[in-house]
Amino acid sequence: MGYNIKEIAALAGVSRSTASRVISGNGYASPEVRERVMKIVEQLQYKPSAVARAMVSQRTHNIGVIVFRETLPIVSHPLYSKLIDAVLMQAEAKGYSIFLKTDREMSLRSTDYLLEQRVDGLILISRLRKNVIDYVKKFNVPYLMVNGSTDDPEVVHLVSDDEEGGAKAASHLCGLGHRHFLIIAGPQEHRSHNLRLEGFKRGLQQLGGAETLDIVSSRESTFEQGYALMKEHLAWFSGGRSGALVATNDMLALGAMKALLEHSIAVPGQASVMGFDNIDYAAMYAPGLTTVQIDTASMGRDAVDLLDRLIRKEQNVPKLNRYPSELIVRQSTKREYITARRS
Fold first, then answer.
1. Please, which pLDDT band fits residue 256 given cuts at 50, 70 and 90?
2. Structural domains of the chain sorted by starting position, each given as residue range(s) with its CATH number in brackets
């Protein structure tokens, strides 16, 4: 048999409001009253429903998370999986449950679904259209963005310093003596890929430029794309010419490295290879991939903490939260002793 708060109060000999304060832990009740109410709760194995709690507190203690990404994989993506894991763990620690949706069409349908669940707030991950933000604003639901860009100064967003990461990649490779560069650049409409490329080019300019700088554009940021594009551009290393290959994420870099090794182009002897993100596969590969690490775990944890502050209507929540990048040097890059002149 199910019991409600009114019956619990009657059995404990207290008012309904007193019983509610004891059970919720909000408000004062004497030790004697608290003990009496909790004894009845334990005897009856009473558990207040989520709906009832939400009606009293005006909160569901649910957070909606949407990952906007057009291509698969999404949740199993080596970068986003770390981010989502961190969100889930921190949400649990904060007493929130998570509704997770993916949106490949960059539409409003996922947003509509989560708003219908009366979530307390939204975490919007990756690239999304401005109409999503405009739509969410109409409902006065706290929200923030992770790994996306916006011109709205009022939006709380968390981003990695990808331009800085690009500059660090350029500094590392130039420091090894490289002056010839082939870049596989992921979709430039995506903030991270664009800023990593721009940061790398800026870093090269500050270090004196490059003798060769060729950029190959990729429609997707996948292992398969990196592999296919590198096979199309194997001639770049023909005749034993050496140089550095830079990809704007690790999956592109690992795919390209597979193509190089299959065609007997030594890594790092002839081709130094570098990526971005420091996904787990980067350390597992042989040779290990030199990369620029993005602290997605901190971004995920902080996203929950900052959203919690917005939900609680705290003041002075920082709008721009930028996370520094870190160079991770492994075996896929080495000093270039002979620099070949290119036509």
1. very high
2. 5-57 (1.10.260.40), 62-159+296-323 (3.40.50.2300), 162-294 (3.40.50.2300)
